[in-house]
Design brief:
alpha/beta, Arc Repressor Mutant, subunit A, D-Maltodextrin-Binding Protein, domain 2, five-stranded mixed β-sheet, about 40% helix, elongated, WH_DNA-bd_sf, sequence-specific DNA binding, transcription regulation, DNA-binding transcription factor activity
């Protein structure tokens, strides 16, 4: 029994949900992948997968084994990289997941520069606003702009993401300009309702903290939509500055309540726990920390 081959086959079946797709990615036949998994289950004396004609998914034993198998395979990959001196010439595939808006507005130029610096690496970038499972979905690094809940994953802070309360000049002309957070109770709000705080807004000023439950007309999980609807004069929005910035510069949006601030969100790099972080993941995260930290310094924050 080739234990390493069995582990790789099993892990790939769990990641893809399919023996056929696992075989395609491993360049093995479906029957070979099935044989490896069967040998692994026989050696353990337990069933690891629930099988149908089209799909395979881990049962409770399988999920526990999969998580440990990923650590083992990651350790082997890290050992291979160390022996091959990949610190100087990193290569191989790096799978990255990132939020849609951040990816389209800010991440593209950084990715291009990273590829220039490390030309022998392959990057697979998947943009999605869904809350993915880095382990289950097979990502090496997941970028999140959030208030993170407790997790078994490791999170490294990359940079703060300030937010701004804003509305269109037309909206403010029709409804008046709020001068205090309590004034927001008389305005229509556009909210991002997928934070730990729910739809509540927290604004802090010289007179302390203010928690506002806005009367919202739109709740959406994409801040670009909030920006576009705010530009059309449909309400007051609390938006990350990197998304509102161009509209603010062009005068299509106006920042309000400038004597108060919302706690910034944070851009995190999230990855599964391993004793030795793979070189390619470490290099990518270090690059983002340096890149976006430099941009913060230029803004004077």
């Amino acid at each position: 029994m080739d234990k390493l081959a069995c582990l790789k086959a099993f892990a790939k079946v769990v990641e893809t949900g399919s023996f056929s797709e696992a075989g395609r990615q491993l360049r093995l036949s479906r029957s070979a992948v099935s044989k490896y998994v069967a040998e692994l289950e026989e050696s353990l004396g337990v069933q690891l997968l629930n099988r149908t004609t089209r799909h395979a998914s881990p049962n409770e034993n399988g999920q526990l084994y999969f998580e440990r198998a990923l650590v083992i395979l990651s350790e082997l990959d890290a050992a291979d990289q160390a022996v091959a001196h990949l610190q100087s010439t990193p290569r191989g595939l790096l799978r990255v997941n990132a939020p849609m808006s951040f990816g389209t507005i800010r991440l593209g130029p950084a990715i291009a520069d990273f590829m220039t610096k490390y030309p022998e690496m392959q990057l697979q970038l998947v943009l999605s606003d869904d809350l993915v499972d880095p382990v289950q979905d097979g990502f090496d690094v997941t970028l999140r702009i959030a208030e993170l809940e407790s997790s078994s994953l490791i999170a490294r802070k990359i940079t703060p993401m300030p937010r701004v309360v804003c509305a269109s000049p037309d909206y403010l002309k029709r409804h008046g300009t709020p001068h205090h957070p309590q004034d927001l109770r008389d305005h229509v709000s556009l909210t991002y309702g997928f934070l730990l705080t729910g739809n509540q807004w927290k604004l802090t000023g010289a007179d302390g903290e203010h928690w506002i439950q806005p009367a919202w007309s739109l709740c959406v999980n994409n801040a670009e939509v909030l920006r576009d609807v705010a530009v059309k004069g449909r309400g007051v929005a609390l938006i990350p500055e990197f998304i509102a910035g161009e509209a603010l510069q062009q005068g299509r949006l106006k920042a309000i309540l400038n004597d108060f601030w919302a706690p910034p969100l944070t851009l995190y790099a999230v990855y599964p726990p391993t004793r030795h972080l793979s070189v390619k993941v470490r290099l990518f995260i270090d690059f983002l920390v340096e890149r976006f930290g430099r941009e913060v310094d230029k803004r004077g924050n």
